[in-house]
Amino acid sequence: MMTAEKMGSTHRPRPRATDYLIASKRCELRNLECFLQMGKLVLSIGNLIHHLQRERGASNVYLGSKGERFFDELGAMVSNSNQQQQTFEYELLEIQAELTSHPASISLLNSIAAALHGLDILPVLRADIRRQSVSAEIAIESYNERIRHLLAVVFEAAETVVDPAIAGMLVAMVNLMQGKEMAGQERASGSLGFSRGHFDSALSRRIAHLIDAQERSFAVFERFADEELLMLWQHHTNAEYWRDLQHLRGLACSVGRYKPLDTNLSGQWFELTTQRIDELKRIEDTLEDHFHRRCIARYTEARSALTHEEDLMDALDDAGPDQDPMRALCTGDYPGDKPDAYRSDGVGQKLGRSVFELVQQQAVRLEQLSGELRLAREALEDRRTLEKAVLLLMKRQRISDDEAHKQLRKLAMDQGRKLPEVARSVLEMTALLR
Amino acid sequence: MMTAEKMGSTHRPRPRATDYLIASKRCELRNLECFLQMGKLVLSIGNLIHHLQRERGASNVYLGSKGERFFDELGAMVSNSNQQQQTFEYELLEIQAELTSHPASISLLNSIAAALHGLDILPVLRADIRRQSVSAEIAIESYNERIRHLLAVVFEAAETVVDPAIAGMLVAMVNLMQGKEMAGQERASGSLGFSRGHFDSALSRRIAHLIDAQERSFAVFERFADEELLMLWQHHTNAEYWRDLQHLRGLACSVGRYKPLDTNLSGQWFELTTQRIDELKRIEDTLEDHFHRRCIARYTEARSALTHEEDLMDALDDAGPDQDPMRALCTGDYPGDKPDAYRSDGVGQKLGRSVFELVQQQAVRLEQLSGELRLAREALEDRRTLEKAVLLLMKRQRISDDEAHKQLRKLAMDQGRKLPEVARSVLEMTALLR
């Protein structure tokens, strides 16, 4: 049996604190590196979604007008969407090896699988729209589904970030994209109603719901956006076209089935909503640009911190392999958890202090990060919870998602609680009643 | 510019949904594989902690009796601890490559660095105890610190699990180990008081706090333990020695500084608490064994699911590389999101349905898992929040952790809220007031 004294001088290989410290830093670096590439993927997803949204809106003008409007426009839009899809697929291939060999998240990989699978169905959908062999409602729903899968990839990617500065920006991004998608669905639903010349009550309710949902997403975006983005945002909310847009929104929400509208309004509606959505896209692009710059800054920072620490570790190794590690780490006093506990009598002291301080620094930093990260994670979690509760109510009561949202909002209002809290209670209750 | 029709037949490489589906499954498998090895590491940590706890208790009898008791026992215990440390280091080296090349968590790696660094200080601490050149209070604190770092590794490991069945067991494990550590600290503090022959009020308060903290940890353990463990637990709480132990606990908590005790009680105290702690260790070993078996079962399951799906994918590939992927995926009707939308006219239909169903199945499964996982994660998060709030109060008010716990408990009582909620509020408030 070995005694404590013998332990220190044996030469069997032992795991070293410094190896794990360096590995921890490298892991952080790899995560940042991954997001430098992921940023490009998110950009390409944003572009693809943008064009699919436009295609969806135009398809509804086309179908709603029984093929009289937007025949040519639609062709050009499909072509643009295809180009964007190619770029998305190219970016995905670029990081495929990284994503699948150092997988960050099971859910991220599965969401990519679902998104790719969803895109494969587009050509058939487009041909059916062209032939007018599909109802506008089903066409909208099918586009919504593709876009939902693409947004889920961004959402799952945001969940894998461990750097809070970056996580906050991705939360802003996810919510901006989500709000923009609700605006896109509003454009499509309105296009259908205006080109048909009337809105039934389901369609009006749908539009009211979409307006409400946009506001909720954009509120979260505002919480996590930086100053420059907030200025752009303010500019957007004060734009001139809002007066006309609000007027048309009013018609869409209240006109009813039996009061025919001028079908030429569909052109104006498409134009105004498109102007607005294009503006949202520019804000999204700015956010994307800020995100990219932040990733580079954080990566450079982490890279040089790692180099600095690797140098320190090398210095520790150079102090001689025969030197008792105990001696280097704690040269006398043992509550070695406090740096001033090391004796100030030479090299061992200096290096011992370095290792100690680095471990502590990293622990304190990770602790701080985890606190800041929690806010970002909670915002993502709130969104997930709400979506789950809505799906659950839809399934249980066989109601639309507008109706499910409405029930949850009513519950929240009645109980004076926040929407995500109510959603959480609904899920917990159901788990109990299962 | 390409048209939609041309897109389908070009031969540029494209990312495939099936690749990501398989990657998602492989990622899940790797996580399980990692926990098969991690289980051994956790076992070795549990054993090392157990022996350090015993050494800590005996050191306090030794120091409290001014070197009169436990001289020989202590030597044997140190030797056992060293053996356990070797095993721990061996297990760590076994998975070092895996841990550092496919890093699961930055925090896990850093917690290992801190634990290793902490162990390096042990020989010096032991020499000081032997020479009686360190106070019992500082010696206890130093052992507590080493054990705290070791427990943090198990905690961080638990946070990286993605399989809810396994996550729940690790939550039970973390809380059992935490409760056992509080029992160990109770043994050490009591050993000091009984061997000195008196308890000052700080020491009595400390013991009352440790008893309370044990109960809270074990309550969480009970929530996540399986039936067999609950039976063992019931047996433990009804053991015969409790009557004597409760009597000594009563003395320790109330005797006061100026009423001398028979110092021979220290032997009885050490024996009773050790009997209890050894029993806790046996429950821990059973839990470890169940955990290992569960990991193997889940791994085997996931492995065979992956093989099954890879076979399906191969079949899809064999259907011919020249076959248009669109055709295989959706042979006509496009809201291809519903399996019954595929035409029942041949191979394409069958394979299309397979891919679709697999993506859906994995999504539904991940969704269910994430719900179950949330409960386990929340229990871990509650513990982390509480610890952070305690540390914060200790630092701000320069008080002991007993005192900090007491303040939080009082707040919770006054406000009729749960302890983790109050801890969360404290942290949020401080973030606001910073």
UniProtKB/TrEMBL annotation, chains A, B:
This is ANTAR domain-containing protein. Residues 366-427 form the ANTAR domain. It holds the Pfam family ANTAR. GO terms for molecular function: RNA binding. PROSITE patterns: ANTAR (PS50921).
